Amino acid sequence: MIEENKPQHVSKELESWVEQTTGLTKPDKVYWCDGSELENRKLLSFLTESKQIIKLNEKKYPNCYLYRTNENDVARVEDRTLICTDSEVEAGPTNRWMKKETAFRMMQDLFKEIMAGRTMYVVPYLLGPEGSSFSQVGVELTDSAYVAVNMRILTRMGDIALQELNRKKEFVKAIHSIGNLDPEKRYICHFPDERLLMSINTVYGGNAILSKKPHALRIASIIARKEGWLAEHMFLLEIVNKENDKNYYISGALPSASGKTNLAMIQPSKAFKDFTARTVGDDISWLFSGKNGEMRGINPENGFFGVAYGTGPYSNPNILESLKKNTIFTNVALNPKDNTPWWEGLSEFPETLYDWTGKEWHKGGSSAAHMNSRFTTPIKQYRFKSDRYEDPDGVEISAMLFGGRRSSLLPLVYEAQTFEQGILVGAMTRAETTAAQSGAARVVRDDPMSMIAFCGYNMGDYFNHWFEFAEKIKKRPKVFNVNWFRKDENGNYIWPGFGENFRILEWMIKRIDGTVKAKEFPIGFLPYVEDINLNGMDFDVERLKKLLYFDKDGWAGELIKVKEFFDKFGERFPKKLWDEFDKMNKRVLDYVPEN
Ligand code: OXD
Ligand code: MN
User: Fold this and answer.
1) To test ligand 1's pocket by mutation, which of 69, 76, 374, 455 has the most ligand atoms within 8 angstroms of CB?
2) Average pLDDT over residues 66-88
3) Is the CB of 260 under 6 A from ligand 1?
4) Residues 356 and 466 in one domain
5) How many CA atoms lie within 13 Å of 457's alpha carbon, on the beta-carbon side?
6) In a domain, 61, yes or no
């Protein structure tokens, strides 16, 4: 076996684990990634020459590539994502569980000699800013060069991580193989006790880039509980009011493929010329308490893995320029005329395309890019990133928001009256599923804090942990709930969304500053219609009233569903959360509408 590029100082633990994995998987070669530009170019050339990836137009899209996954491997597979512990109760009723020993044996069998004839890449990575006491090191061993080049964008990869490892000693171990892409033998296993991840028969990002959902959310959420912080499926957005020179940091949880990246990159329209908005993170936030009892957050990632489909001049004008260099596209269409990537929403339909599977596509055909097609692009080159994204101490959170896709009932925005009620608002999130989950139809499911697929332990304990965490926070952020997705009788979206959502963010800022009042309802505070700034927008106030209406009967029904979900946790469900629920339920049932 050949070993290449091995660094001089490698800890004994890392060295022996790599050796052990090599013994099991039997690669022809082990290559240690250093994260350098030269190495990146070599890996991309190898992928191009071996026809695994397509190099795009160098003039229009320098250093950009298109990768097509197998047609059966286009999204996260939640039913094959397992939490592997001694007892099922540790995983809880929302996770799929397998007994640790059984899962380990199964994975050992599947990984046996799986890398024969292939190269195993050793990919050390750092999650979080360099020098942050919250940063974590992981090492992924993978036989996919595509995974390695993605990780170089999404994490701080290579030597920088090994240096941090020399200081920290502890690291998360992750083993991945493309295997043979057999969907029946596809598994993403999490072994929290060993801080070990094993994933096989997939290359789709959320299943194979183990630094992301598996480490930065599932394993990190378990570590966070032990250490007293939170790992959340949240973007982190900076808003500056230039008029009074105040900064606001808003973290927000929305389910996958529900506009989280777009909101994290929102551009205030002309009506809001006093404001700028900058991105700290678009998908994951690690939240902790600061010295003065404030809530702080960092983005553990270093790049964006956003949904390409639908991204365009209207939905997210800011990102488009960034996608024109150093970006890997997955499952988008290809315009053969000039060898450029294309997806629905980017521009007018070209006459002819190759669709995401590589087949010829003509105008009028079904979707050319996959609905869960992705871009992987570095934060560094994003013009509207916040200067604070590399701050090791993170940023101070002024507000949090929860939400999801709901075609009815849920108002455009409402505010929790207290932080504890805010925990309930997050916990009772129910949202329509999207193309980010394999096999998903548009059905409403419980998705507390948008973490249903990402909490690595019993969610009853998770809710409890939120209350424990809240006790440490003396300067409590306001908590809001948003829903951009209400539909009218004809099935059309009522609120235009995207950039116009800034109007709602501005209302939140006014609430943070205490400059507007709000009206109390059983679920929390709703805005007075006149406090939502509609300047420069052609939107009927009556429609806005509809979006801010409190529907007593609808909410009574909603809370029945919420209760059914909460009941699943039995003993593990915190009393404090039942108390919040009971209070809200009583207020809803007792509510008598004015006149
Ligand atoms: C993602 C997801 O990729 O949530 O961010 O699926
Ligand atoms: Mn996500």
Assistant:
1) 76
2) 97
3) no
4) no
5) 21
6) no
